[in-house]
Amino acid sequence: EEMTENGKVWLVTGASSGFGRAIAEAAVTAGDTVIGTARRTEALADLLAAYPDRVEAISLDVTDGGRIDAVTADVLARYGRVDVLVNNAGRTQVGAFEETTDRELRDLFELHVFGPARLTRALLPQMRERGSGSVVNISSFGGQLSFAGFSAYSATKAALEQLSEGLADEVAPFGIKVLIVEPGAFRTNLFGQGAAYFSEEHPAYAEKVGATRKLVQDGDGTQPGDPAKAARAIRLALDAENTPLRLALGGDAVDFL
Ligand code: NDP
């Protein structure tokens, strides 16, 4: 078995921006092959042009289960394996618990929990049969704590973390690593008006939820963390002999709060 990630095949969700893009770049510049997936695959055109032999961009909305099955089957048929699955696609959501609808909550669970679970189920059997592979699940500091306006977001990330923890124990005997990444505040498009979703503010919660909303909006583009550094840290953690279960990145969580 290879001692480093060199020459491996990565499948990254949400590879069009932020962490996903940085993780894809780090992998391809180190000599690996990257299947970058996102809804906006055109955002990967430059990486595709720079590394035509080792980058592929595939359109994938991770809330579309049928599409997940089709994409993973196609990738396995053509590449024979995926060594590293990175469940990264996500979005932020700020809103009072009382005004969060079933629909909004379900949609966020589809994106942060059911999509990653389905991708993992699809790619796990070949990892188990080969006796190697890694599943990287991008959670958040919000997977361990929550506060006004963040209940739905944190609930989905906490669910992702517990799925990951149980999975890690199950698949360790097969040489498969599961890495939960908990970033603090990083400079990505997550907090941008376009990418972010904010439910309407309930007047009774305007003060507390409004404060979180303001923090998130004001933070757009000014977060301390560099996603390229996060990508390097993830790579180091995966290459380590004793990969940790959780990787908390950046001491920024407290500043953000
Ligand atoms: P960005 O907004 O920069 O990137 C989000 C990515 O997710 C985009 O590539 C987007 O691609 C993709 N995405 C969103 N919805 C879907 C969907 N339905 N199907 C497929 N892809 C989708 O933000 P980040 O890089 O910050 O976010 C990546 C992860 O990091 C998220 O899970 C987020 O929760 C987590 N995180 C980020 C923190 C930060 O400080 N930035 C802190 C803690 C956690 P497209 O629109 O093309 O589909």
Tell me about this structure.
Keywords: Oxidoreductase. Its EC number is 1.1.1.-. This is 3-ketoacyl-acyl carrier protein oxidoreductase (Partial match). GO terms for molecular function: oxidoreductase activity. Belongs to the short-chain dehydrogenases/reductases (SDR) family. The protein is of the alpha/beta class and 257 residues long. It has a single domain (9-241), classed as Rossmann fold. It is 44% helix and 16% strand. The chain contains 8 helices and 9 strands. The protein has helices at 18-29, 45-50, 65-79, 102-130, 151-171, 206-218, 227-239, 253-256, and strands at residues 9-13, 33-38, 55-59, 84-87, 93-94, 133-138, 176-183, 197-198, 246-249. The chain has a 7-stranded parallel beta sheet with strand order 3-2-1-4-6-7-9, sandwiched between helices. The protein has a two-stranded parallel ribbon with strand order 5-8. Strand 6, helix 5 (151-171) and strand 7 form a beta-alpha-beta unit. The protein starts with 8 loop residues before the first strand and ends with a helix. 42% of the residues are buried. NADPH dihydro-nicotinamide-adenine-dinucleotide phosphate binds next to helix 1.
Brief account:
The protein has helices at residues 18-29, 45-50, 65-79, 102-130, 151-171, 206-218, 227-239, 253-256; strands at residues 9-13, 33-38, 55-59, 84-87, 93-94, 133-138, 176-183, 197-198, 246-249.
